[in-house]
Amino acid sequence: MRSRTANWFETKIRYEKVQDDGRQKMVTEQYVVDALSFTEAEATIIEEMSSYISGEFKVTGITQAAYGEIFFSDNDTDDRFFKVKLQFITIDEKTQKEKRSNVLYLVQAHSLQRAVSYVEEVMGSTMIDYAIAAIQESSVMDVFEHDATKKEERNDKPEYEQ
Questions:
Q1: With left for phi above 0 and alpha for psi between -120 and 50, is residue 77 left, alpha or beta?
Q2: Cα distance between residue 62 and residue 49, in whole Å
Q3: For position 108, what pLDDT does the model report?
């Protein structure tokens, strides 16, 4: 289990997908990319998806994600992503009242129970008091992290080859 903090963007791609029965159907799928701007997010998702989609596709939406950190699983069976809302519990020193602040995370897991166990595994090593306020499966198909080595490889090529 590893976690990554970044500037995440949720992108939606619309394309014609071949179904299990052989028919083609227009689908819209959601992917998350690590980018610094909306423009970079669009360029990244186009680059990543062009190797998976054979026909035309269209980026139909880009929004900045409400979460800043994603918990990635090393387990191959963890093929879904869950949005987990945690409440960090602190005590106000002046009023001695409990204060709760909400933080949203994206967690890669196979099931709801496994997502909860991953959150407990990561948060258990911290000193923060927390409560799981909500958890739900998201429609995210995959996450594309920023890969600095790809950019370095492209920048090493002569300009006419890029």
A1: alpha
A2: 15
A3: 96
> Would you give the distance in Å from CA 7 to the centre of its chain?
10
End-to-end CA, the chain: 36
The 129-137 sheet, strands edge to edge: 2-5, 69-72, 98-109, 80-91, 129-137
Amino acid at 137: E
Instruction: Write the pLDDT tens digit of every residue in 123-155.
Output: 988 888 899 999 999 999 999 998 766 554 444
Q: How far apart are CA 119 and CA 104, in angstroms?
A: 11
pLDDT digits (tens, 9 = 90+) for 47-83: 999 988 888 899 999 999 999 999 999 999 999 999 9
Give the Cα separation of 85 and 92 in Å (integer).
21
Give 130's contacts (C-beta < 8 A, 6+ positions apart).
Answer: 86, 87, 88, 89, 123
